[in-house]
Design a protein that fits this description.
Length: about 270
Amino acid sequence: MTDQYCVIGNPVAHSKSPQIHAAFAVQTGQGIAYGRRLAPLDGFADVVRDLVAKGYKGANVTVPFKLEAAALATRLEERARAAGAVNTLSFVDGEIVGDNTDGPGLVADIVRNAGVPLAGKRILLLGAGGAARGVMLPFLQQGPAAIVVANRTLATAEALVAAFQDQVTQVGACGFDGICGAFDIVVNATSASLSQALPPVPASAFTKDTLALDMMYGDQPTPFMQFAARQGATTRDGFGMLVEQAAEAFAIWRGVRPDTHDLLTTLRS
């Protein structure tokens, strides 16, 4: 019998995860089926319990349920504990096991696919929700010079930073109106692009040497990417991160890691 997986989100119809995992299954010879599940904003836990009852083996979790997934899991892997957020669930022996592959996926896309090292760089992280929490530890492990977390609610950014104080990397928090200076890498981890909105980041955060990456992706550049490009920055959407985090999740579920290079090239074209 084919093992069942899916991605849970709201919205979720735009997700390319089913296409990605189908390609991984063909490449690795794994027999899986992967779909989408739209969860009501107040019904995430019910959807997960329904999947478990129907014999699903696991699920990915996207906006806005990553924090709720961490609370629902009966066991958290180290990356998920550090993040306080979950994007990958495994249903194993009656347990709901939570992991987080967002950070490793983003690091892989920036360092390997975009060819931009994180070591010694100044990083601006826009947003302090589940997406931002998931990338903090993997970013710190790369040895950047500084990470600044900017969020509409300062207290939320401060709480995130407090959980990731680092003796080597300078880690700070501010409101959007407190962003000062230029950065080597600016990551939009807010959900603004889902509604075609621009997070209130100043033009001074970008230079011609900045990599501006939006975790969201679509057929057209997001407002964040368009704004950054007007400042001379190099822009990148979240599709590479999506493929890389999916490969990590696939490896957790199936015990084999698919190659992403050819798939990225094919899907982007």
